[in-house]
Amino acid sequence: MAKLQKSIDKRNRLIKATIQLVNNNGFHATPMSKIAKMANVSPATIYLYFKNKQDLVNQTYIEVKAKYTAYAFETYKNDMPIEAGFKLIWYRIADFKLKECENAMFLAQCDNTPMIDEASRKEGIKNLQPLLDLWARGKKEGIIKPLSDYLLYAYAINPLSFLMITQKRGDFQLDETHLEEAYQSAWGSIKVCK
Amino acid sequence: MAKLQKSIDKRNRLIKATIQLVNNNGFHATPMSKIAKMANVSPATIYLYFKNKQDLVNQTYIEVKAKYTAYAFETYKNDMPIEAGFKLIWYRIADFKLKECENAMFLAQCDNTPMIDEASRKEGIKNLQPLLDLWARGKKEGIIKPLSDYLLYAYAINPLSFLMITQKRGDFQLDETHLEEAYQSAWGSIKVCK
DNA sequence: AAAAAAAGAATGAACATTCATTTTTATATA
DNA sequence: TATATAAAAATGAATGTTCATTCTTTTTTT
Questions:
Q1: Which terminal residue of chain B has fewer beta carbons within 10 Å of its beta carbon, N or C?
Q2: Which nucleotides of C are covered by protein (CB under 7 A)?
Q3: Of B32, B46, B30, whose CA–CA distance to B113 is shortest?
């Protein structure tokens, strides 16, 4: 147990270092040697945990994506009313993007560059199912516009990534008021207008 | 004239090659030698046109951003009615993102990674002024929600980037119908609801 | 005392940038 | 107009560095 514990801890430090360094410098400008140093480990040790650099970043992506969706759906029950359920998930996602900024920035970079394997990307998307189910239910009930999931995601969820990035750059502060406004815009863009 | 013409042509080829290679491989996985080869030029020649690799990518960014905004506002007049003006600009932007996919993908990658200098990024944003002016006018007239420009951009414009990327990945096809739906979502998220 | 984990140093490839020449272009002269 | 020459542009090869990965040895665990 002690051994396994130690290993997991080391692995976590490597993943954490990868996130921070890739956020600041990008994937290819992040040398394995720096990751090792930040994780207090020898460069060679990384290869005991990961096959190579690509594998390290793929696994990091999958892990962060899983953490993200776990957080998003933690308190959601799939029999909730549509709008309440959506609001809950939306605020959880917003929360994650603002509080777990490091993780969210990492995902944004992965999702907008060719740095992640196609397979790992697919793997990461799976966890979003509960939201897609909610939308399907909402469409059936005539509450949510009958649009492609991609369109719904583009308008209801993705703007949060943009706002997080501008916030991280210091151009803009996303406070409580803004958050409520953003939610209204998100809901306004996907709900059926009466 | 012949000489200058030739130079501009070479510079254009270098910028085009940079866009294509960075789109496919990312900034740091794109060697100068490959850029040179694709532009039919010696590696050393690049340094006659650009100070170094960072300068090359910065200038490419600024140039593409300028092309993007020029296209967006080409037919817009600043005395147009709010909704008509917005609709015009929105469709021009959509058009650009779908037709000039290479250019748009490049901008998306630049805007979501640390690959561009802060100064060049600022430079690129300036050209967006006509849209901000339109929004200011719309807010004054009570037609557009009194939100921060960043929020308006996040909901009205940025989703197009996400849709373009998913389209490029082949996950989703953004046809005429979808485009109309997307416009309705965009306008729905920023217009004052009556 | 054997096996597993970790380490630091070594290896070899890739790369940005520069250097020494060559080629092209522009200019001046006859 | 044709030729010589200076200047500019372009080149391929060289340079020195950085880096991912592996190798050999040491340390820790069982």
A1: C
A2: 5-10, 14-20, 25-26
A3: B30
